[in-house]
Structure formats: C-alpha cells, structure tokens
Amino acid sequence: MITHVCFDADDTLWEEGKFFIAAEFVLADVLAKYAPNEDIADILLGVERANVPTLGYGVKSYTLSLIEAALKISDYQISAEEIARVMDAGRAILRHPMEMPEGLVDVLTSLRKSYKLVVITKGDLVDQNHKLDRSNLREYFDEIHVVIEKDAPKYTEIFDGFDVAPEQCLMIGNSMKSDVVPAIDAGGWGVYLPHTVTWQLESADEPVDAPKYRRLKHISELPALLAELNKTPV
Amino acid sequence: MITHVCFDADDTLWEEGKFFIAAEFVLADVLAKYAPNEDIADILLGVERANVPTLGYGVKSYTLSLIEAALKISDYQISAEEIARVMDAGRAILRHPMEMPEGLVDVLTSLRKSYKLVVITKGDLVDQNHKLDRSNLREYFDEIHVVIEKDAPKYTEIFDGFDVAPEQCLMIGNSMKSDVVPAIDAGGWGVYLPHTVTWQLESADEPVDAPKYRRLKHISELPALLAELNKTPV
Lengths: 234, 234
Description:
Strand order of the largest sheet of chain A: 3-2-1-4-5-6
CATH class of the largest domain in chain A: Alpha Beta
Largest interface: A-B, 32 and 32 residues
Number of strands of chain A: 6
Shape of chain A: elongated
Order of helices and strands of chain A: EHHHHHEHEHEHEEH
Largest sheet of chain A: 6 strands, parallel
Keywords (chains A, B): Hydrolase
Organism (chains A, B): Paramylibacter kogurei
Number of domains of chain A: 2
CATH topology of the largest domain in chain A: Rossmann fold
Helix content of chain A: 40-55%
GO molecular function, one term (chains A, B): hydrolase activity
Pfam families (chains A, B): Hydrolase
Protein name (chains A, B): HAD family hydrolase
Oligomer: homodimer
Radius of gyration of chain A: 19 Å
CATH architecture of the largest domain in chain A: 3-Layer(aba) Sandwich
Distance between the termini of chain A: 9 Å
C-alpha cells in the first residue's frame, strides 16, 4: 500500500531546464568569435561536472560555471561587459516565470486527500524555496527536502523519516539517475516521467527489469497509476 | 531545565569570516588602480546586501557579489585575468583549513552526555556540510539545520521539532541578529559569543534586559553556564 508520494521539482513540478538552455544561448552568442557552438557546450559541461563536488547544483553554481567557461573558452580575452552579460544570463534563471504542467494542481489536490505528498529536490536551498513560493505549490506538500545528492542512502534516510516501509513510498521525476534508480534501490517505487530537456549529468540506464519501476507520459496519469498499484500488492 | 543546546557554525564552531576578508584583500588589490580601499569595501557591502534576497548567504553568493562589485568598481574596465583572480579568491574560501576554538571538542564531548546538540546555520547546504565533514564535528550533533534565515519563526519551528518547550532550548553564536535575538524572541535562551570578525549585516542591539540573554567570552565557558542555568529555573 503506497502512502507517501514524492516528487522531483525541476522539470517535474515546473519547467526549469529550458531556462538554463536560454542562458547557454547567451554564452554561445558572447563566445561566437572565440569558438564553435559545440565546443562551447562541451567545455561548459566539463566545467559543470568538475564543479559539482565543491559547488553542488543550482543556479549560483551554474552561473559560476558559465563565467569560468567564458574565461577559459575566450582564453582570457573576453571583456568585462561580456562577462557581465554571461553572469546576468545565469542570474536571470533565478527569476524565471513558473510554468507548471497542465492539470498539476488537480493531481495534487486529488492525491493529498489519500497520500502524504513530499518534494525531494537537489539545487539551492534559497532558489528551490523561492520557486515553491512563486508557484504557489508549497501548500500541497507535507514535507520539502532540499538535499545535496539524491542517492539511495538519502532516499533510505527520507523514507525512514516517514516511519513507513520503503515499499510504501513512490518517487516520481525526470531523472533516471537521481529520481528513479536510487528510489528503487532504497526499496521504493521509481516512476520515470521523461522531460524534453534533461541535463546530461542526470542520465542512467532504464531499470527495465525492476518490479517497482514504472514510466508515465504525463503527470496527470499518476492518480490512475497509484490506484492500480494499491490494488496489486507486490 | 535546558535540554537542547544549539550552535551557530561559522565563527562559532570554526573560523570563517577571516577567509572572506582574505578574498576581500584580493579584490582590493586587483581594484587598487580603480578605487580607494574604503570605497571598494562599501560598494561590495552594498552589492552583498542587494543580493541576499535572491542569492542567499554563503561562498557562492559571495563570489558572485565579488565579481559584480569588481565589474562595477572598475566601470567594466577590468580584464578577464583580473576577474579570474577575483573569482578564484572567492572560490578558495570553499577549501579553507578548518580551525576550531581551543577546547571545542572537549566541550562537545562533555555536553553530549547530558544534552541534545544541534547545529543551526545559514549559508550554503553543500558548503556547510563539507565543513562539518572536514572538521570531523558532525558526529557530535544530533541534528543539523541549514536554513535560509535564522529568524524567530525559524527558531520556533526548530524548537517545536524538538518536542520540548522553547525555554528548554539554548542557542549560542556570534551574531546578535541571527543567533541571539531571534532565539530569545522564540522563547529560548540566547548566548552571545562575540568573534573578532563579524559581518556588518549580522549586527543588532544587545538585548541587555532580556532575562534569557547571556554573554560568554569563550566557548569553554558554556558547560559551566549550562550547569548554572539548570540550577536556577526562570
């Protein structure tokens, strides 16, 4: 019997990745005279990957990575005004409009009558909280967890905190690596809800043989899936 | 009867502010040809203050503020290499050596036998957790709270989570504004432990008339204060 439904935030509850891509377009535009587009994307991804251990996830880290990439790609030839453009493009992500999938509020309104609803998100504490406020979604959730990494030990810790068995917990999100696979590894259900934009560092193999793995096309299918799973004990 | 002892982290459990000042020296050195030292400090503080609502606290925010201040103070004349020096100086704070006050581990070892010990800190989730690991202090604490703002409602929420009355909770730290005053406002004890380096945005009036206000010179005095307070119900 599933009792706790946990949601990823970025690109599950609201659009996020496309605003990062918009910032990357600015970077590419500023750096066009120094390097071809595909090199810029590769170098940026390398800088991001190298920075995750010390800087973590989120817009501030990304903005620092954009600046670092701009300095490197231009071989320190970039002007202060161009740096300012790149920094502003990164920081603008902090103010992006909130765009939620159609029917999300209906889904949450319906599910909260029968389930505890939880947000489990990486990223920056301040920014993720701002988005919960700007989206007016905070009131639908019983718990909000902003964490450093979404790995199996972290899911175990969060599920333990619910005081229920892990198989009573379901996690839904657009990242195989951070939402689906580790939640299943922790003994819960992992529901993959692919998004058109997903960061390369979030990919992982689809756990096609895991009995507690499911895949949805749209979040509006979630109530029906829960109803079905709660009729069929595993 | 005090049962829960809560500690600020930066400049209470370990040295922190002086590493920010080291970065500010680099900023001043890089910008020496553009502006006098005192103007640089003033403009940086203004930039920091303006950025807190969107960027929050911590090294990543500070580094972005350093870059923004460098661009502004140089009137966008600063070179890419100089920007890199400023950014590196900010990011170096993330790797600073951990320096703890003399006797801290003895204090924590002794107190944990009789009290629940808690860290309540602002700053960045990733960085604060790294410092708890680098300092080897994590094991002494029952709970770690990395929060966006340390105000009275936040202390009320944390104290409520302990399932004890607020007067059973004591908060100790070097910030009047974030550690002492709001903990007292939430019904707990506020213990001021001044540090030589405290950020200007953390100042507030000393609550000299508050019955639950105390002031210490060194953290090694804390066990004696707790013993005294627990003999004298208020």
